[in-house]
Amino acid sequence: MRDGQVEGAYVPIGGISTRKATNVPFLASLTRNARTPIDAFTEASERAGGELVRLNMGPFRPYLVTHPDHVQHVLIQNQPNFVREGMFWKPLAPLLGEGILSDGETWAESRRILQPLFTARYVNSLAEQMAVIINELIEETITPGRPFDIAKGISAIVHPTIVRLFFGSKISVADIQRLVPAYDVAVTAKAVRLLMPFVPQGVPMPGDRAFRRAIKTIDGVVYPRIREARARALESPGEESTDVVSRLVKARQDVAGEEGDRRIRDDLVAMHGASTETSATALTWAWPVLDAHADMAAKVYEEIDRVVGGDPVSTAHLPHMPYLRMFVNELLRLYPPGWILPRMAVAADVIGGVAIEAGSTVLLSPYLTHRMAEFWDSPSVFDPDRFAPGREAGRHRYAYWPFGAGPHVCLGQHLFLMEAPLVIAGILRKYRPVMRLDRPVTPRLASSLRPPSGLTMTLVPRGRS
């Protein structure tokens, strides 16, 4: 008996014998791992061993889904039954809106409008321009020999790259400088509510005020750009504009007024997140990983030195740096930015023989699935060779899903897989990172998987380290 429930007890649903999920006392684990809350999820996953379990959080008991078969069921096979609604999503609604990061008709409409901007073909058409922007921003951002705040510094490269690439001159440098930190605050301020989603929205929690200020700043940047684009479209209706704001205005010209502006705003915020959050978050992990694995770092350095040399990095270099691509894939395995994906069951269902009640919350996590010993040898060990040619044969399709899966797969994945090696190679062609860490770098809890804030390194010219 656990939490008043018989483990493995069977109940009939629609004539099918099912069992109830085992309850895992989760609040006690969170208390024990107060400094590193994500370890509580790891403990629950290891205890579950791939089975569905319920995390006992007092009044809230979500199902934890980790096995690739069960991930496939929720995200692919019965995806319409598992929607992005419920306690975990409500706190983020002012940021996410009702576009591509929602569900239903508004999601389908936004997906149709935004998808052409994220296809591999379209990203490839912008790739060389992206490389030029990245090289310029690296020059502007890095001062050799001075402490470099990793999260802020990488963000100062990634965010303006995407804004300049997609928005051109329609957003000023001043607006970029307002937008970037505001978005950063918005995606981190709700960490406490992520741990206690059952707390009513009316009850003040740490981070709420900072979140509201961030949303106000984001809207203060985005809405004026929308109104300017609408005015240009009216003045020059036949003019073809390539910037994203103008494209969205044109795509939604049948919805005028505040409602139309709001839908465009939601699309823009979602696009900004899909284009930057994955890249900026994942790339902050590259540097402590290189510091902790000197042998792998040496391989990355050698490949970049040999292929790129002292030239500005370009997309022509990328096919000739397979080890860097493997390194990035392994980075996404151990540190997937979107580490947890909540869904709500619309109707009752059965997953892995476990009965799921309508209205229940299920938590999926690539962070946990990617660390399952059943599918990965020495899963906690960082090893880029897992992604060497031929090594992926026979691996479960959903043992590795850093960008999600199914209809809601991340739109920004092609962009990331182009941008990440350009940023890493762009920095390492000129510099070597030097870090002085007195303890292991562990994730801090937020809506994306981030290292601790304030993590710094010194970038010294190559050959002088």
Explain briefly what this protein structure is.
This protein has helices at residues 26-32, 38-48, 68-77, 93-96, 105-114, 120-141, 150-167, 173-188, 191-195, 208-235, 244-251, 257-292, 294-307, 322-334, 366-369, 413-428, and strands spanning 10-13, 16-19, 22-25, 53-56, 63-65, 82-83, 147-149, 341-345, 349-351, 354-356, 361-364, 431-434, 456-461. With 465 residues, the protein is of the alpha+beta class.
Distance between the termini: 59 Å
The count of strands amounts to 13
Radius of gyration: 23 Å
Order of helices and strands: EEEHHEEHEHHHEHHHHHHHHEEEEHHEE
Structural classification? alpha+beta
Unreliable segments of 5+ consecutive residues: 1-12
Question: Strand order, biggest sheet?
Answer: 3-4-5-11-8-6
The fraction of residues assigned to DSSP E strands is 5-15%
Largest sheet: 6 strands, mixed
Describe the protein in words:
The protein has about 475 residues and is α+β, with helices and mostly antiparallel strands. It has a six-stranded mixed beta sheet with strand order 3-4-5-11-8-6. Strands 7-13-12 form a three-stranded antiparallel beta sheet. The protein has a two-stranded antiparallel sheet with strand order 1-2. The N and C termini lie far apart (about 60 Å). It has helices spanning about 25-30, 40-50, 70-75, 95, 105-115, 120-140, 150-165, 175-190, 190-195, 210-235, 245-250, 255-290, 295-305, 320-335, 365-370, 415-430, and strands at about 10-15, 15-20, 20-25, 55, 65, 80-85, 145-150, 340-345, 350, 355, 360-365, 430-435, 455-460. The longest helix is centred in the middle third of the chain and has 36 residues, at about 255-290. A hairpin with a 6-residue loop joins strand 4 and strand 5 (about 65). The protein is built from 16 helices and 13 strands. The model is unreliable at about 1-10 (pLDDT under 50).
